[in-house]
């Protein structure tokens, strides 16, 4: 390059990849420790179970990350998951072909995401408020529709899906790959991905550079809604019922996974692989705690402490890198 | 008198004329820039010491060091004969050093009184004595001769009035050394007079004042001594009675006008853009034409409607009346997107707020307008993304380690090159530059002006907005003067003198009459 070289900092991107690697190292370390300290962790059964547990939060975290990169937040995803189980269950029980039922459920997720975009862009509501409102309303609507009862899904093939494996890997984990790869390409190799970052960094500068900021925000929340509805379908398949109160608190787990994975709540910093790793780290902690017979209450406390520790060290490193 | 009222009178100060603050080789380096080269200077107690210099000369760096906002790289500071670290703002304030900034740094949602006593509230048994504080604050304000209420929310006042409150606040905390950083930028003439009265009064009470301003007439009106900074170097200090305007300007610039302002004249081509009787928020009935190969300068004070006019052209705000013609055809521009599609490009006034994604890489910032072109329907071409960014970095001589460095790590001048540079690859026909050289050093300024010529030679047209008269004066082929939302005068290249243009922009006589009744 002909530009005047300034010594000092190394390129940032290496650092990002490095962070991904250290998260992976942390995950591997946890697995090694648990394999040694418990007899049952390394069993095929348990690993499949762990992958299933982590998969759904992982997919939610990817959608959540798109939103957080724009500087927003989507608190509704847990409620959307619960609501989607109800929609999927009702459609399937009504005899709608599974393929079509799944598609329609996903469209409901898209519609919810569009509504969030509308509230933020057109009504000027803060993301926190509009998605908080949907969080409580959707649970209410779901309870109203179901009269507070669970809907048992009478379609074995649909439920089989979540239990089966392909090439020895649980189907649910394949779904993470199905979502993760397009999400990665979208975020890191398409211009819409660049726009998510630029809007999160400086919406005004992006607007003046010809970026359609409103459309970008619509897109982020729509994708988050879509991911949540998809997780709803997977959950319905796994538990075999539609119930609007399911997935309580999953929005917080999704946010936690995203943040553990290096996403900045101030926007403009994030990746796809980070939240995925974050979700499986959380799943491993829960799984391991169960195996070690740690009191379920303690599990929650430990998770909270770990979030603080991981994000604190990430912040330290970021500041140190500057 | 209660305790708070006593604080109006500064703590005992040194007898006038003795040295209160000495700087020995004070220096500040940022990565990539040497913002302040070793400065040695002594301030006398009770003097008004003006500091002048161009944007980027190091004035704000000096203030940041003196107020403890940033640590110095090297050098020594002697306060009242003792070395001072000045490592934190708190330490500076404890010594009695305060600053009134150009931008008001107070809490806009709190009342005037709450702001005056922020951090030193009057409370009894932990309960705020709100009424007492309002009364106290009102007394201070009245005492200073400002006609302002103490109980209202600060944000309800004009920027100028807020500035006066900020000044009043700085006087109630045992201040011995007070720095004013371009305090009159947003003030009306009447408010400025009130401020000057306050400053003279503080001087009478023995407070040392640093007064930073672009306005020479204010320097000569107020100051006892003046120091000139240029490119981070202290060029010299003069007694105000022994210097004049011309000498100071020469010290500030140190090169002839021709060396900075690179002006090539091109024969204007066809009209690119024409505004006919355009009105909108903040301006009315403005007509002008921009032709290929010419620079149209818009001069006026901040808030005169220049920026509002161009942002409306650019589709940011709706016009309320009038027409816009693009290459002879009437067009409706309803969004920035429409404007960019036509071939307009805007480099906005505020780099940080509007121009850059600071926490993203340089390369992404440069490519932001052209991602559509360097990607197919789905994917970005990595190769093109790299070559485009590297080419701009090389062409514009942007000083950055790589295209992956964050925009925030660059100096102001280099950031400005990104703001401008991102439009070069885009290939616009009409460039709008809003205050393109604020906070940019002289060398970068000259580079930016050369860039203008390059654009013009390719048949582009330029609208140049500036509050700095020499800039528009030396560069614009057509110069429009704005005042209070109206286009009040139009000149050709150097067809009017500075004084005439200034008078048109200020219309100071009328305002003085209106302001003081």
UniProtKB/TrEMBL annotation, chain A:
Q: Where in the cell is it found?
A: Cell membrane
Q: Where are the transmembrane segments?
A: 66-91, 98-119, 125-145, 166-187, 217-237, 258-285, 297-316
Q: Which Pfam families match?
A: BPD_transp_2 (PF02653)
Keywords assigned by UniProt, alphabetized: Cell membrane, Membrane, Transmembrane, Transmembrane helix
Q: What is its main location?
A: membrane
* Lipid bilayer topology: Multi-pass membrane protein
State the superkingdom. Answer: Bacteria
InterPro entries, sorted? ABC_transp_permease
Q: What is this protein called?
A: ABC transporter permease
- Which organism does this sequence originate in? Mesorhizobium qingshengii
UniProtKB/TrEMBL annotation, chain B:
Check the record and name the SMART domains matching this protein. AAA
Q: Which UniProt keywords apply?
A: ATP-binding, Cell membrane, Membrane, Nucleotide-binding, Repeat, Sugar transport, Translocase, Transport
Q: Which GO terms describe its molecular function?
A: ATP binding
User: Where is the ABC transporter domain positioned along the sequence?
Assistant: 21-256, 267-509
**Which InterPro entries does UniProt cross-reference here?**
AAA+_ATPase, ABC_carbohydrate_import_ATPase, ABC_transporter-like_ATP-bd, ABC_transporter-like_CS, P-loop_NTPase
Q: Does the keyword Membrane apply?
A: yes
PANTHER family found in the cross-reference section: CARBOHYDRATE TRANSPORT ATP-BINDING PROTEIN MG119-RELATED, D-ALLOSE IMPORT ATP-BINDING PROTEIN ALSA-RELATED
Q: Which family does it belong to?
A: Belongs to the ABC transporter superfamily.
Query: What name appears for this protein in its UniProt entry?
Result: Sugar ABC transporter ATP-binding protein
């Amino acid at each position: 390059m002909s530009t005047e070289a300034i010594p000092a900092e190394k390129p940032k991107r290496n650092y990002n990849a490095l962070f991904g690697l250290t998260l992976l190292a942390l995950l591997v370390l946890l697995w090694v420790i648990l394999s040694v300290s418990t007899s049952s962790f390394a069993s095929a059964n348990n690993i499949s179970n762990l992958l299933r547990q982590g998969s759904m939060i992982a997919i939610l975290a990817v959608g959540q990350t798109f939103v957080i990169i724009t500087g927003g937040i989507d608190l509704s995803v847990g409620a959307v998951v619960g609501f989607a189980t109800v929609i999927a269950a009702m459609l399937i029980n009504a005899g709608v072909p599974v393929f079509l039922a799944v598609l329609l459920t996903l469209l409901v997720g898209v519609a919810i995401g569009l509504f969030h975009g509308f509230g933020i862009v057109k009504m000027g509501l803060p993301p926190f408020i509009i998605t908080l409102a949907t969080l409580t309303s959707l649970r209410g609507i779901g309870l109203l529709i179901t009269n507070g009862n669970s809907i048992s899904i009478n379609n074995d093939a649909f439920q089989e899906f979540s239990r089966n494996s392909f090439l020895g890997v649980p189907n649910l984990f394949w779904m993470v790959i199905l979502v993760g790869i397009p999400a990665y390409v979208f975020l890191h190799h398409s211009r819409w991905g660049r726009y998510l970052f630029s809007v999160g960094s400086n919406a005004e500068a992006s607007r003046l550079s010809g970026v359609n900021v409103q459309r970008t925000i619509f897109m982020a929340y729509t994708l988050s809604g879509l991911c949540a509805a998809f997780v709803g379908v997977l959950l319905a398949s796994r538990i075999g019922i539609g119930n609007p109160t399911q997935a309580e608190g999953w929005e917080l787990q999704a946010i936690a996974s995203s943040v553990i994975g290096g996403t900045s709540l101030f926007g403009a910093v994030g990746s796809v692989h980070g939240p995925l790793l974050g979700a499986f780290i959380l799943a491993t902690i829960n799984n391991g705690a169960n195996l070690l017979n740690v009191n379920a209450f303690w599990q929650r406390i430990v998770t909270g402490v770990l979030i603080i520790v991981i994000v604190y060290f990430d912040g330290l490193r970021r500041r140190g890198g500057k | 008198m209660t305790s708070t009222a006593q604080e109006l009178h500064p703590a005992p100060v040194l007898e006038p004329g003795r040295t209160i603050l000495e700087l020995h080789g004070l220096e500040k380096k940022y990565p990539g820039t040497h913002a302040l080269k070793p400065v040695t200077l002594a301030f006398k107690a009770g003097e008004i010491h003006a500091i002048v210099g161009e944007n980027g000369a190091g004035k704000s760096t000096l203030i940041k060091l003196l107020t403890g906002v940033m640590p110095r790289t090297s050098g020594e500071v002697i306060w009242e004969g003792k070395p001072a670290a000045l490592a934190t703002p708190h330490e500076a304030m404890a010594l009695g050093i305060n600053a009134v900034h150009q931008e008001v740094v107070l809490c806009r949602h709190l009342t005037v009184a709450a702001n005056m006593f922020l951090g030193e509230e009057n409370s009894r048994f932990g309960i705020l004595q709100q009424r007492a504080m309002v009364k106290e604050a009102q007394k201070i304000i009245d005492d200073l001769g400002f006609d302002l209420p103490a109980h209202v929310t600060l944000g309800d006042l004009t920027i100028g009035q807020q500035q006066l409150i900020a000044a009043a606040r700085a006087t109630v905390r045992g201040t011995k050394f007070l720095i004013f950083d371009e305090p009159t930028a947003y003030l009306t003439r009447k408010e400025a007079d009130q401020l000057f009265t306050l400053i003279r009064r503080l001087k009478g009470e023995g407070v040392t004042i640093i007064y930073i301003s672009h306005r020479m007439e204010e320097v000569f009106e107020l100051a006892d001594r003046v120091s000139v900074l240029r490119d981070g170097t202290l060029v010299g200090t003069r007694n105000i009675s022994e210097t004049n305007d011309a000498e100071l300007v020469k010290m500030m610039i140190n090169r002839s006008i021709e060396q900075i302002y690179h002006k090539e004249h091109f024969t204007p081509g066809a009209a690119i853009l024409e505004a006919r009787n355009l009105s909108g928020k903040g301006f009315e009935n403005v007509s002008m034409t921009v032709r290929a190969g010419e620079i149209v300068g818009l001069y006026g004070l901040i808030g005169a409607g220049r920026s509002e006019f161009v942002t409306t052209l650019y589709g940011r705000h709706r016009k309320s009346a009038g027409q816009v013609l693009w290459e002879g055809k009437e067009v409706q521009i309803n969004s920035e997107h429409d404007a960019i599609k036509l071939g307009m490009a805007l480099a906005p006034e505020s780099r940080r707020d509007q121009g850059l994604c600071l926490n993203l890489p340089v390369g992404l910032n440069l490519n932001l307008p052209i991602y559509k072109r360097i990607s197919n329907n789905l994917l970005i071409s990595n190769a093109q993304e790299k070559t485009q960014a590297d080419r701009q970095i090389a062409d514009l001589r942007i000083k950055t380690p790589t295209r992956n460095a964050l925009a925030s790590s660059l100096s102001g001048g280099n950031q400005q090159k990104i703001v401008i540079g991102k439009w070069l690859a885009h290939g616009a026909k009409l460039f709008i530059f809003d205050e393109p050289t604020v906070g940019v050093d002289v060398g970068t300024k000259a580079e930016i002006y050369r860039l203008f010529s390059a654009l013009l030679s390719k048949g582009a047209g330029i609208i140049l907005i500036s509050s700095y008269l020499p800039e528009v004066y030396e560069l614009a082929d057509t110069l429009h003067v704005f005042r209070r939302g109206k286009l009040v005068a139009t000149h050709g290249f150097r067809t009017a003198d500075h004084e005439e243009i200034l008078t048109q922009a200020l219309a100071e006589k009328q305002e003085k009459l209106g302001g003081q009744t």
